[in-house]
Structures are given as structure tokens and as C-alpha cells.
């Protein structure tokens, strides 16, 4: 008589399935991206990202309290300044919008892990991630400004700085700058593998950072390339990165898995704006079970090897995890 394995034995009840589950999503895994707008009186909805707002500083404080009570442990901050200039000076101003938001978050919850996105695109009128000279995004002149921005975030109390600009050499410059200023304990979460993706569309509205000309393909990665991701990650490790990020998440699970197999550092993945908005739109139309879809997505990120998940779904996921625990 032919024999076969009865795999269904371990799927027979919910408790058995829980017992043998290989990957779980925890509150510890989640980082919530938040947008803080200088001069905003309260909060303002982002129309292309239902449920996500820009926050004025007072509203941001109240939201930090609410999220902390919900169990959120980590945020990453993006700033929308009142003034923009060619040198992105608002990015590294001592009383800049992100710097003030760091202080506010720490005042409300000293234990909260406050990460900051380090980039120039929200702070210059041309919307590019580096300095622009004669219509070209120039690499080396951008490095000092990017490092200066990271230093200002660390000085304001940021726990982690996360450069997203994709300029070559920025991790090394940031590490050197932080160390020289006495912030050798501030880790760098590098957007090591950031693709020139169409999935960033709603973020452009959220952060007021659409390029005024051209695109970002000369510095962000070609979506067709995976081996290049390993080169980018290896370079950032050599320059002093403490953690690596893959962005976006859903279409690049294979890249996350490749990094996990190759490198021992903690790996983050960014569940980006259009990935979020597509789920919200489908749920609003009654086409999907939002909770089931989102939790399946979160599990897929963990299964691919991500230790850290940056996601706009974080508050909902925290609530659902709480309900599952009873």
C-alpha cells in the first residue's frame, strides 16, 4: 500500500496551527511613518492615503500619547517645512520641524524609539534628494548637507538616523560626522536598497516632495536589478551601517530574502504609500478583507526575512494583535 504524509494533521485546529507557526508579527517589529508639518495648527488629512494625516506639533504630541497607549514602540519622522531653499537649510536647522518633533516625541514618551528620515528632498524647491547644480543631482556636494542633517537629528535626541537619499558615500560621511561629534552610539538604518519605484506616488503628496524636473532614476535603483542590491548593501555595511532597509516591500520580497541570506545585520522593509493606499481603496469598495490582507502582508515580510517593518498600517495592526491576544 502506498504511503503518504498527512500534513493536515498539524492544521486540524487553531491551537495546533499556532503551535507550529513559523513566523509571527509582533508589536516590536513595527515602525510607524509620521509626517509633521511646520506651522500647521492641528492635523490635515492626506487624501491619497486614507487614515494618514500631516500633524502640527501639538496634534503630533497628542498622537504620540495615543499611539504609545496602543503599544507602538517606534516611529520614523518626515518633515514638511515652511521654507525651502537650494541648500535645504531647513533640514538641519536646530529648531527645524523634525528636530522639534523629536523633542516633542521624547517629552511625551522617553522610551519611544524615534527614527528620522535623513534626506534633502522635502527641503529644497526642486524636490530632489541631493544638491542640484545646472540641472544635475550632484553626489559629493550633497554629502556634507546630508551628514549635517543627521547630526542635527541626533543632537535633538533621535535614537536612529535613516538616510534615504541614495547618494554614494553618505553612510560613511554620516558615521564620521556623528562619531566626531560624540554620537557614536546613534545607529544608522540605511535605505541601502531603495528602488526608483512607481509605488511612492501618494508619498509625494504626503511629504510635498515631488521632483520639479526629471525623476530619481540616476540615484535610486532600477527595479529590474537584484544583484545590484547586494552590492549596495555590502557598500553600506563597509561604511558603517548598523541596519539595512529594502524599499518598497511587496514587489521586492525576493530582494529582502537575498539580503537575509547574505548579511547578518538587522533588515527592515518599507511597506510604502501606494502599497498602503491600494489596500485602503480596495477595502473601501468592499473588495477585500482589509484585516486579513494586511496581516498576511505583514507575515510575508517576516517570512522573507525582515526584522523590522515600516508600515502605515501599524496602528491598525497593533489593534488587531491586541484583539487576537484577547
TrEMBL record:
Homooctamer. This is Delta-aminolevulinic acid dehydratase. Keywords: Heme biosynthesis, Lyase, Magnesium, Metal-binding, Porphyrin biosynthesis, Zinc. The keyword Lyase applies. NCBIfam families: PRK09283.1 (NF006762). The keyword Ribonucleoprotein does not apply. GO terms for molecular function: porphobilinogen synthase activity; zinc ion binding. It comes from Alicyclobacillus hesperidum. 5-aminolevulinate 2 binds at residues 273, 312.
